């Protein structure tokens, strides 16, 4: 995304850390440009029950003091008020949108064809070689922690149908589209000279393209 688009949409990313048996932490990072982002000023800590399930009724916030101090140095005016408003806004984004992460994990665990995942090494070959050269073997021995997620065949079909539907609506809205084939009921045609002709039921328009997905000509998609 361009810098202008980022300033409007505020692209964000989440970090879910579920390694601890006692708690899970959630952090939210907000993009400033396509290469810079704000660190999370607060971390959401979700405690776990004996069975390992998350206890949402016993959650708490952990302040990231180094991020808060950096933010205060950059702010002007009433620093305390600005910082408090920033933290409250950040909490709202985090708690409202983190459900997307849980939905993503649930979809991956369901093993459906809507989403596909592929594990990849944390370090490239050159990075692993450099780590071993400088004695950082623990970096080269880390687990495969990076997973690439992409839509599966079902998602591809859905996007193809949506695009075909939008193109179909554009052609229809232009007013130059030939009507889709349909039946015209039997009726009478009256002429100015008084002649009346009985018109039999017949088909009118052109058949829908065979390359058009079946579900394309359906309910209108609201933008």
Walkthrough of the structure:
- It contains seven helices and eleven strands.
- It has helices spanning 3-9, 65-74, 79-97, 99-109, 125-133, 137-140, 153-173; strands at 12-17, 23-31, 37-38, 42-48, 54-63, 115-120, 146-151, 182-184, 187-190, 196-199, 202-204.
- The strands form four sheets. Strands 1, 2, 3, 4 and 5 form a five-stranded antiparallel β-sheet that branches. A two-stranded antiparallel sheet has the order 6-7. A two-stranded antiparallel sheet has the order 8-11.
- The protein is elongated and about 95 Å long.
The major β-sheet equals:
5 strands, antiparallel
Instruction: Give the SSE string.
Output: HEEEEEHHHEHHEHEEEE
Assembly type of the shown chains?
A: single chain
Over all CA atoms, what is the radius of gyration? 29 Å
Regions with pLDDT < 50 over 5+ consecutive residues? none
- Give the averaged pLDDT, no decimals: 78
Structural class: alpha+beta
Give a count of the beta strands, DSSP E runs of length 2 or more.
11
The global form is elongated
Count of individual helical segments: 7
* Proportion in helices: 25-40%
* N-end to C-end Cα span: 21 Å
**Strand residues, percent:** 25-35%
Q: Mind sketching the topology for me?
A:
Layout: H1 3-9, E1 12-17, E2 23-31, E3 37-38, E4 42-48, E5 54-63, H2 65-74, H3 79-97, H4 99-109, E6 115-120, H5 125-133, H6 137-140, E7 146-151, H7 153-173, E8 182-184, E9 187-190, E10 196-199, E11 202-204
Antiparallel strand pairs: 1-2, 2-3, 2-4, 4-5, 6-7, 8-11, 9-10
